[in-house]
Design a protein that fits this description.
Blueprint: H1 2-20, H2 51-56, H3 60-71, H4 85-93, E1 100-102, H5 104-113, E2 122-126, E3 129-134, E4 137-141, H6 143-152, E5 171-175, E6 186-192, E7 199-201, H7 202-215, H8 217-223, H9 235-241, E8 246-248, E9 254-257, E10 263-266
Parallel strand pairs: 1-10, 7-8
Antiparallel strand pairs: 2-5, 2-6, 3-4, 5-9, 6-10, 8-9
Helix pairs in contact: 3-4, 3-8, 7-8
């Protein structure tokens, strides 16, 4: 009797403990690395179809909302080493397509087919730089690495880290017939693609942008209005919303290429 009673009491105690034990938590989904810790890929550096065309169809309120949204965007670390408003905007609208890259024979044929003279060849000499691939990994990259990024990589860095960018944030090239621009040991050569390049001079952009501010007060309020300050200006943002992806120095030879798709580069 006593033995059976003891066993029954032990069984009851075990059952009570089992009832009191907290439930086993469900398995947690595997956490992916924050976007800042990812190297450039299709997910963290997206490409949108016809971003310029999409901007043209937006209302004042939609453009203002898009700009504000872009300034709160979480960028991959390789695009976020400086707080640059243009980089955030271009990233948000997906203006990150790649240029057409051709070998010498095909490049010459392209120029012939499109009646592009030698004098219109663009060039840019490049020094070494730094690339932040993760939040804790910054590496020195060679001039050839930078050229290859512009030609082939998903990375489209146009932020305000380099230079004063007098004509907006972007990739600067000099229309000098393809000569060395003496900024570095490696020179990138190409031409504007007449099928994709939409060019406006900085002077004309200023005229249109000021008129745009008047007709789009919500966008002007969100951006603070058209600005040509030497560093971190919004000239390239205004160029894109007006339908352009290249800003040309008025009366000069410098070209600020905001969208790589506007270029045909020599391999």
């Amino acid at each position: 009797m006593g033995g059976r009673g003891g066993a029954s009491g032990l069984t009851t105690t075990i059952r009570m403990r089992q009832q009191m034990a907290p439930p086993t938590p469900p398995p947690q989904p595997q956490q992916t690395n924050p976007i800042q810790n990812q190297v450039p890929d299709a997910n963290n550096t997206p490409v949108a179809p016809d971003p310029l065309g999409q901007l043209q169809g937006m209302s004042d309120a939609q453009l203002a909302q898009l700009y504000t949204q872009s300034q709160n965007a979480q960028l991959p670390n390789h695009l976020n080493d400086v707080n640059d408003q243009t980089q955030k905007f271009v990233y948000t609208i997906g203006m990150n397509d790649k240029p057409l890259v051709l070998d010498q024979a095909a490049f010459n044929q392209f120029m012939q087919d499109n009646n592009i003279p030698q004098s219109q060849i663009l060039s840019r000499s490049i020094n070494k730089g730094t690339l932040t691939t993760t939040a804790k990994n910054t590496s020195t990259i060679t001039p050839q690495d930078i050229v290859d990024m512009i030609k082939y990589s998903r990375l489209n860095y146009i932020g305000g880290k380099i230079g004063g960018q007098a004509y907006g944030a972007g990739t600067y090239l000099d229309m000098n017939g393809g000569g060395n621009t003496f900024y570095g040991g490696t020179t990138m050569t190409g031409v504007l693609n007449p099928n994709t390049a939409k060019v406006i001079t900085d002077t004309r952009l200023g005229v249109l942008a000021k008129a745009f501010d008047k007709s789009h007060p919500q966008f002007a309020k969100a951006t603070g209005g058209y600005s040509t300050t030497f560093r971190n200006n919004n000239m390239s943002i205004y160029a894109t919303i007006l339908g352009y992806n290249v800003i040309k120095e008025n009366g000069g030879t410098y070209h600020n290429v905001i969208d790589r798709k506007a270029l045909v580069l020599l391999k």
